Amino acid sequence: MQHPPIYPFPIPSPENSKRNCVIAFTTPQNYAGRLSELIQLKGWTPLWCPTLIVESTQQTISSINHYLNFTSNEPYSLLEDFSALAFTSRTGITAFSEALSINSALPLTPHGEILTIAALGKDAELLDQDFIGKMCENPERIRILVPPIATPSGLVDALGLGQGRKVLCPVPLVIGLDEPPVVPKFLEDLAKKGWIPVRLDAYETRWAGAKCAVEVVTRSEEECGFDAIVFTSTGEVEGLLKSLKEFGLDWEMVRRRCPRMVVAAHGPVTAAGAESLGVGIDVVSSNFGSFDGIVDALSHKWKSLENQES
């Protein structure tokens, strides 16, 4: 597994010259590079502690291809039966694109009803011309939808009323952890809007093992060698709690060891999930379409504290 760049010393930054902080974050590899870079740009030191492994497998690619391949009885793919394709994560788009790349034929014929493809925030950048070209030779059949609020519920609202139409939902297959309520609620909300949601396990999300808590445990023993921890999904929180348990620790013990630690959540969905697991959140990003929001929220938090101290 290739780690994002982690520097042994903070990078000077005029904006945060008084506070060169170490920021632990539990993001999986597919998002780690982006968040690590933003942390460095703030003049802080990133400390990557991934609690989840997120990746596609031969089984999940096969599941996607079930909807992309032409059937023996019909001259079209099962994807033609859907009015929308709703992605709730960047990994879902990547896995779908991977399956498209190994498919010999385009899944959509040039003529037919428009397929709406929806994605959240910066994830929609992956729905580029290359992706659309793998779907259909007629780009007019594809409509890209990016909801103004980058949450699953915002995606449901943006899709509108389903009126009995089908929506394909590439989501993770969670292994070794309890599935967070985000995906089941997303599917339930779509059904309430009149859609017929079809769940597609497009990739796997697995616990990374006890080793992911080593840095947190070690640094918490050293008078807390980090200033903040950032969670970008509920699954990451559960993964860390499970790892801490392997070391005979719980979250309250870490909190007592690190009284100055700031706990940050990327958006209200992650914050609510963390709170439900007993992890109190100090900072929630209001701009959660990208990771810029969470690093800005941390910066604002520390500036407020510095103003109070002065």
Automatic annotation (TrEMBL):
<dbReference type="InterPro" id="IPR003754">
    <property type="entry name" value="4pyrrol_synth_uPrphyn_synth"/>
</dbReference>
<dbReference type="GO" id="GO:0006782">
    <property type="term" value="P:protoporphyrinogen IX biosynthetic process"/>
</dbReference>
<protein>
    <submittedName>
        <fullName>Uncharacterized protein LOC107778553</fullName>
    </submittedName>
</protein>
<dbReference type="GO" id="GO:0004852">
    <property type="term" value="F:uroporphyrinogen-III synthase activity"/>
</dbReference>
<dbReference type="InterPro" id="IPR036108">
    <property type="entry name" value="4pyrrol_syn_uPrphyn_synt_sf"/>
</dbReference>
<feature type="domain" description="Tetrapyrrole biosynthesis uroporphyrinogen III synthase">
    <location>
        <begin position="34"/>
        <end position="288"/>
    </location>
</feature>
<dbReference type="Pfam" id="PF02602">
    <property type="entry name" value="HEM4"/>
</dbReference>
